[in-house]
Amino acid sequence: MRFMLLFSRQGKLRLQKWYTATAERDKKKMVRELMQVVLARKPKMCSFLEWRDLKIVYKRYASLYFCCAVEEQDNELITLEVIHRFVELLDKYFGSVCELDIIFNFEKAYFILDEFLMGGEIQDTSKKSVLKAIEQADLLQEVLIYCYIDQVDL
Amino acid sequence: MPAVSKGDGMRGLAVFISDIRNCKSKEAEIKRINKELANIRSKFKGDKALDGYSKKKYVCKLLFIFLLGHDIDFGHMEAVNLLSSNKYTEKQIGYLFISVLVNSNSELIRLINNAIKNDLSSRNPTFMCLALHCIANVGSREMAEAFAGEIPRILVAGDTMDSVKQSAALCLLRLYKTSPDLVLMGEWTSRVVHLLNDQHMGVVTAAISLITCLSQKNPDEFKTCVSLAVSRLSRIVSSASTDLQDYTYYFVPAPWLSCKLLRLLQCYPPPEDGAVKGRLVECLETILNKAQEPPKSKKVQHSNAKNAILFEAISLIIHYDSEPNLLVRACNQLGQFLQHRETNLRYLALESMCTLASSEFSHEAVKTHIETVINALKTERDVSVRQRAADLLYAMCDRSNAKQIVAEMLSYLETADYSIREEMVLKVAILAEKYAVDYSWYVDTILNLIRIAGDYVSEEVWYRVIQIVINRDDVQGYAAKTVFEALQAPACHENMVKVGGYILGEFGNLIAGDPRSSPLVQFNLLHSKFHLCSVPTRALLLSAYIKFINLFPETKSTIQEVLRSDSQIRNSDVELQQRAVEYLKLSSIASTDVLATVLEEMPPFPERESSILAKLKKKKGPGAVSVNELEEGKREGGELNGGGERGGDSSAIASTPSPSADLLGLRAGPPVTAAAPSAGSLLVDVFSEAGVNDDGFLRFVCKNNGVLFENQLLQIGIKSEYRQNLGRMYLFYGNKTSVQFVTFTTTVTCPGELQSHILHIHTWNSLEPLIEGGAQVQQVINIECLTDFSDAPLLNIKFRYGGALQNLTLKLPVTINKFFQPTEMASHDFFQRWKQLSLPQQEAQKIFKANHAMDTEVLKAKLLGLGMALLENVDPNPENFVCAGVIQTKAQQVGSLLRLEPNAQAQMYRLTVRSSKDTVSKRLCELLAEQF
């Protein structure tokens, strides 16, 4: 995987993770361009598209778009499920995750993603293993932020 | 703002985030951020030492600000301090900051590396994982230098925790991708491969990504992974849907691992061991069988995971391309998906079938789905799916269904998205030619193409239709009639005017018997378009007019009047004016006989004669060394046009200019270099344009600049300069289409011994793997000549155009003579040195027939271009040419003398080269014998 983006329907970037060295300027340009392309697509359209030299796999959960850029030989369907598993992990951790959780606890979202994917490859697909790693950190820090606004529909 | 937490939940951060969210305008946001930055700065600079919590909070705020898109230029040191904190969360934030805001300050990197080193050796698995994550996230060369040696050890050590192993495997993969030279697997190879057998599924999942990447680069060293992967796959595939507990995903056992195993196997040919192969085939059959079973869950996650494995298995089956039974089953399965209600599956099925269509075993099976695919092209709502359908139609086309497919593509073209029109036009043109049995169909198709999508029809396409009409007597009358009808349309595309002008100029007489298309009617029709056309088209029309004068004497006075009008004879465009003047003069002074000779019908284009192939095959012998390579380049060039067996044909336009091609001798002098702009071009451009490929490499022996390669998609130009034993070559890659080229990569290799003869350093000026439509990028190659050499370096170009991979290999025109320093000398000296080089092996001689007109000036220009000094008044026979020069290599200097004796009567040359080194004499002689 080359990068993963989370952005809202309004075009606000909520999370970005780059797995290859990319200049800040290029990142901004790519994010802008890609958001435009994805947001313009209609609901029933397919979840894959060719963009530059990459394959884009995206899926919308409530107000958030999860968007992965993968390489030519990567499997689109399994990438869709990478997205879904990540959403499940967020959901499990935050308890019915919503966009605000990700805004206010962005660092947690990054930690969860890091436990799940490393260098763009899956580290572990087991929900238990990933969450165990995250919860260990929380033994020291009991952050519990509750919010039920704009809940993600799973 | 949501309820905020207790304890060290960083309340200040939540407040700040919520402030930002409440900002009504961008200005307000910036103001709030600047206030916060000032605050943090003062805290960091303050005298009071900050506690860990505050430091963490401020670092986290900075990170938030950065992620909002603002620049952050401080805080790195505080983040680094956090790394050595004992509190996990502080350490974690420190690492996160470092991973996101990488800084190249070397002092800082030293500190970071120190902290990482400490954590790696801490034996605390969570700390080790954090450190590994940081290395993987940054992935810089400095990190690789510091840790590439340590990580493999952690990965294979017996006492490493599973979670650490997983991180180590992926961390190593990241470093291998950025600095492969620093990651040396050597002794670890076998233990890494055996991670495929690990008890822990998570470890296998992480390790297999690393193993796949390493296998792609070093297939031989890792080939033992094949049997391990097969047995692991077989265990997963045969397990029940709950066996793997947490690694079962929506009733599918280990889908990620299965996909990765199947992907790893695609790095290798089918297993040779019969038992392993049998087991694998069994797995693939099971996967195909499972696709037919009723789903265990209605959730889309279940079907996605299941089908992900299925598609990966199909990819492997296609990769092997050796099991007809499996290929046909795969095709049937995909056929079912073509009508699935999930758009995603339809998309993937179309894509996957495209590759199946090229296998001889499944081509027929794919063809049975033609109606469904045509329907998809017509009805899919998503353009990306329609694009896949068009690709598949192209891939499944053969002689049996070409007419149907071309017709469907043409009708789709009328409404096609602008983004894919150009590609569609090329595809239609290629299919029409490739599968034309009857040429009137071909002519109709191309004219329709121009009518429907004239703007997207490139020159090569209409050149080609003209070439085919000229070569086929049986279609000429039909073509004349058809273009005449097409031109009746009140608004017709300029490309249509070009084709019409050319064809009526040649064959208008074939339809002149019909009073509805009498000569004058034809002329008036053409001339009615004249004023709307661009200069090159007008130039072409003027040539058509003069041809009319020859074909139909009755039109002479009308046409002369047109030529005589001020708008022609005083046209501000030099080319047009010159044509008008010359054609007018020609028509008034030349006798009918002369006119008939000069304006004779175009001779047939030698079919494919001109391609490098035909030309080189005639010349066996040392000069033909490159036949194979060029043949290969040619074939690839053909594929580049998307053509198959006859792909090379589009360059057949590049025929050897026949004497009458140079209409009216307007183009006197040496053949125009291909780099000359083609604007204002004559009819003869049909020849010279694609002639670009014609001599490729050999055309550059006597010159340094020009076009090395050109086809419908790409033009490669070269500029080069040499001094002493050094050279610099500028390569210009021009995208001729309006679609971007992606993953554009070039590699220069020196085959065989050449590596030790030429040293090249190769740099990109703009390292964008992307060339926008119509754009040109430049690459610079530095060359150093170490000793003399005979082979040429190879330039390989790969890129994707509209989804299809283009691959092309060309010889780079670096030849030994580029390193010549001219040496002036008097007659006496010349002959003295000539005698000194009298050993038989020092001389190379060749007698050969002239390929070009024996024009003294042209010969001189070529010899000067060779790089030697052309010596006047040396040879007693003034007809002969002698040259002297010294080749500068790093190892030595090689003095060379040359004598070229033309024999105008016999149209032959004798070429003699003497050098202090035998290989040089031989090579120079080979190179030069192709030039005259």
Describe, in plain words, how this protein is organized in 3D:
The complex is a heterodimer of chains A (154) and B (932). Chain A is an alpha+beta fold. Chain A has five helices and seven strands. Chain A has helices spanning 24-39, 76-94, 99-104, 106-116, 127-138; strands at 3-8, 13-18, 48-51, 54-61, 64-70, 117-118, 121-122. In chain A, the strands form two sheets. Chain A has a five-stranded antiparallel beta sheet with strand order 2-1-5-4-3, sandwiched between helices. In chain A, a hairpin with a 2-residue loop joins β6 (117-118) and β7 (121-122). Chain A is globular. Chain B is globular, with a radius of gyration of 35 Å. In chain B, strands 11, 12, 13, 14, 15 and 16 form a six-stranded antiparallel beta sheet that branches. A five-stranded antiparallel beta sheet of chain B has the order 3-4-5-8-7, with no helix packed on it. In chain B, β1 and β2 (252-253) form a beta hairpin. Mean pLDDT of chain B is 80; it is low at 1-8 and 608-694. Chain B has 40 helices and 16 strands. In chain B, α1 runs parallel beside α3, α15 (274-292) packs antiparallel against α16 (300-320) and α27 (494-507) runs parallel beside α29. With 932 residues, chain B is α+β, with helices and mostly antiparallel strands.
Give the biggest sheet of chain B: 6 strands, antiparallel
Strand element count of chain A:
7
Quaternary assembly = heterodimer
The number of strands of chain B is 16
Number of helical runs of chain A? 5
* Helix percent band of chain A: 40-55%
What structural category characterises the helix and strand content of chain B? alpha+beta
Main β-sheet of chain A, in a few words? 5 strands, antiparallel
Order of helices and strands of chain A: EEHEEEHHHEEH
Q: How large, in whole angstroms, is the Cα Rg of chain A? A: 15 Å
Radius of gyration of chain B: 35 Å
Shape of chain A: globular
Strand percentage of chain A: 15-25%
Strand order of the largest sheet of chain A: 2-1-5-4-3
**SSE-based structural type of chain A:** alpha+beta
What is the distance, rounded to the nearest whole angstrom, between the alpha carbons of the first and last residues of chain B? Answer: 83 Å
Average pLDDT figure of chain A? 83
Query: What separation lies between the terminal Cα atoms of chain A?
Result: 24 Å
**Largest binding interface between chains:** A-B, 59 and 79 residues
Q: Report helical residue fraction of chain B.
A: 40-55%
